[in-house]
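Data card: per-record layout.
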Amino acid sequence: MPEAELDLRLHRLLFLADGVYAIAVTLLAVELVLPETAAEHHGRELLGSLLESWPKVLAFLTSFLFIANFWVGHNMLFYQVKRFDGGLMWLALVQLLCIAFLPFPTSVVGEYVSDPVAQQFYLGALLVTGLLMWALWWYMSSGHRLVDPDLSPQVIRRHHIISSGVPASVIVMMGLVALGVGKLVNPLVLAYLVAFAYVVLGVFEGRESLPAEVEEPGESNDAGSQDEGRSEGPSNASG
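The structure for this 239-residue chain is written out next.
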């Protein structure tokens, strides 16, 4: 199959992914509404209703950060992809299904923020999404199946470590919820801190992946001409 056709299918998948991610983060805001009982509130009563909505706001912020991190990770992984096949397409679609599903557990945990069942349901959705992201990278990189054959093992290993971080962190949080950590601190706060930590990591990863400065062709030629002139100078003088 021609390489151009493969690239077209890959680009279409990436366009679809961007659309799904955009819709998912938009749907998160749909739940940010005050209860009907607050319709007639003013002043202090309205302020009280706003403050009482903190679980929904925290759930929104946490899921927004997680989806943003998944989108950044998705871009990082697909940047390494040089070939396309059916397995990649379906794995990517299943992962997008999980992204599109995340607004639902977000609304549940926002409504029942202190309920362990709601917390485990929310964390479980994040776990499956993170595992699928990791599975994507494993499928791409195993035996250099879809990545550049010259891609170094260090880069592959580094992406494996980063991709496994989210599911590992979520498993720890699910264990803490089972042990009753909710009596000390709401697990949603812990989830937010994990998501924010990945934002910081993404900033540093982005800086390290910046390409080195490339000389302009004109500057390189000028420099070469000057060097050539200097090297020829003594020869002409001696001549």
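Known properties of this structure: Residues 3-210 form one domain. Confidence is low (pLDDT under 50) at residues 1-5, 210-217, 235-239.

See the next section for split statistics.
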